[in-house]
Amino acid sequence: MSLERIKTRLLEDARKEAQSVVEAAEKGLKLRLDREESSLKREIEDRLETLKRELRKENERTLSLLKSSNNKKLLGMKNRVIDRVLEEAMNNILSPSKQEYLALLEGWLKGLNIEERAEIMLSSKDLRGVGPELVRNANESCGKNIFFLATSVVSIKGGFIVKTKNFKIDRSLECIASHLREEPILEVAEKLFGK
Length: 195
Description:
Layout: H1 3-94, H2 98-110, E1 118-121, H3 124-129, H4 131-142, E2 147-149, E3 159-163, E4 168-172, H5 173-193
Parallel strand pairs: 1-2
Antiparallel strand pairs: 1-3, 3-4
Helix pairs in contact: 1-5, 2-4
């Protein structure tokens, strides 16, 4: 063989060898790129899932805070309505005729079933207005002389406070309104916030 042919043959073998090295390197590189791409896709999907979970949790917290805030506002509004209704009810109790108001107080006093000496405490207006008649009618009704008027007034809008040596009963309009107010507020709070 001639030198020229050997040279050509060596160059061709070298080219083929270089071609196969390049092809092997390209295949290896493609495999590495595929693995890296797959790994990056998994990492991106994992990060997206983590972000979605965090966003869901944040949305749930925000929604919960908004619900709580709205429920508090609603409770406040309902409390104001209840307060207005009770205030109007107290004004209506105080606005009828003297005889109607006296009959109401007498009914409340009879319902207490007091059997011992008892002091009836009234507001300054009631002490002058219905006090003496209330005591007289209450004593006549029970057939005993056990009720007497307090000489000092109490700071109430209406109703009375009865005091014996053993106990004190508050039947003032404020006390009754306070008890009436608690029930609807508890119901409203249970509806808004659960038991």
